[in-house]
From TrEMBL:
<feature type="domain" description="Insertion element IS150 protein InsJ-like helix-turn-helix">
    <location>
        <begin position="13"/>
        <end position="63"/>
    </location>
</feature>
<dbReference type="InterPro" id="IPR036388">
    <property type="entry name" value="WH-like_DNA-bd_sf"/>
</dbReference>
<dbReference type="Pfam" id="PF13518">
    <property type="entry name" value="HTH_28"/>
</dbReference>
<protein>
    <recommendedName>
        <fullName>Insertion element IS150 protein InsJ-like helix-turn-helix domain-containing protein</fullName>
    </recommendedName>
</protein>
<dbReference type="InterPro" id="IPR055247">
    <property type="entry name" value="InsJ-like_HTH"/>
</dbReference>
<dbReference type="InterPro" id="IPR009057">
    <property type="entry name" value="Homeodomain-like_sf"/>
</dbReference>
Amino acid sequence: MVSYKMPYPTKLRQRAVNTYLTEKGSRTIEEVAGHFNISSRTLRRWLGWFREGGEGNLERARRPHTKSEFDFEVEKKVVQLKEKNPWLTLLRTQKILKRMGLEVSTRRIWSIWRRFGLSGFIKGELFLENYVNNIAPSKETLLGLK
């Protein structure tokens, strides 16, 4: 599923930019942005687009990000490495991938591991009582000394 925020209409962009440019001395970016119910950061971005290419440049729209073939290959390699060696660390995985010619951040590796259930634990399910039964008893416990 691809989701993205619908872009603002071009007319709104043009009106906001023109309003700011005509009232530059009397109103701040924050005031103009507030008038059009947009963030000042958005208005600054539109002003940058306008300075780069004029009003026609305000017609650009954000496109949804679709995963490329490269993304699937990276995920496949990360999952294969972790499945072959469950004790592999993030940094070690990153180094191996780098030797393969793939630049992948540790954050991305962790995200892939979590998505495929390879991260080792699930947040909220790491309780001591879940693991106490799996710990081998000590000699003292077996002999009744503790």
